[in-house]
Amino acid sequence: MSDINWLAVITSTIVFAVLGGAYFTAVGKPYKVALGNENRELPKPGPIFIVGPLISSLLVVITTATLLRALAIDTLGDGIVFGFVVSIGYLVAQTANIAINPNFPRPLLYTAINAPYFIVCTLAASAILTLWQ
């Protein structure tokens, strides 16, 4: 953990937050449909809707940084491959797994909406963390 560039971790976490805010604002209507909330007015988001994703993103970025170091990934190309493997193999797969339950009326749509966000953010974080070692 002491070998991790914490400025790169903070920058990557900010990338997750900025992209998340922009992306989920842009896909608001389809996202509501995926959750079965298209005909319902949702309450105004509280602090947990900002702090929760920020902390979750920070944990993903720290884990990514730790794995990049442990696997001695130090080139941009290898970092990108790693980002694809982690985003698809862990984040997208786990999102699909979570969505496949009775509380998600459209699990495949939910996964399809979330997948690009996780892939792009993890690729960006992996690139930043690899370049800023």
Q: What is the domain total for the residues?
A: 1
Give me the secondary-structure category: mainly alpha
Pattern of helices and strands: HHHHH
Number of helices: 5
User: What general form does the structure show?
Assistant: elongated
SS strand fraction: under 5%
Nearest-integer average pLDDT: 92
Provide the helix percentage: over 70%
Distance between the termini: 12 Å
Low-confidence stretches: none
**What is the number of beta strands?**
0
* Rg on CA atoms, Å: 16 Å
By oligomeric state, this entry counts as single chain
Q: What's the main sheet like?
A: none
Draw up the topology in text.
Layout: H1 6-26, H2 28-34, H3 48-70, H4 76-99, H5 107-131
Helix pairs in contact: 1-3, 1-5, 2-5, 3-5, 4-5
Give a description of the structure.
- With 133 residues, this protein is mainly alpha-helical.
- The two termini are 12 Å apart.
- The chain has helices spanning 6-26, 28-34, 48-70, 76-99, 107-131.
- The longest helix has 25 residues, at 107-131.
- It is elongated.
- It has one domain (6-131).
- α1 (6-26) crosses α3 (48-70), α1 (6-26) runs antiparallel to α5 (107-131) and α2 packs across α5 (107-131).
Short description:
The protein is mostly helical. Helices cover 75% and strands 0% of the residues.
Q: Which short descriptors sum up this protein?
A:
75% helix; 0% strand; 133 residues; single chain; 5 helices
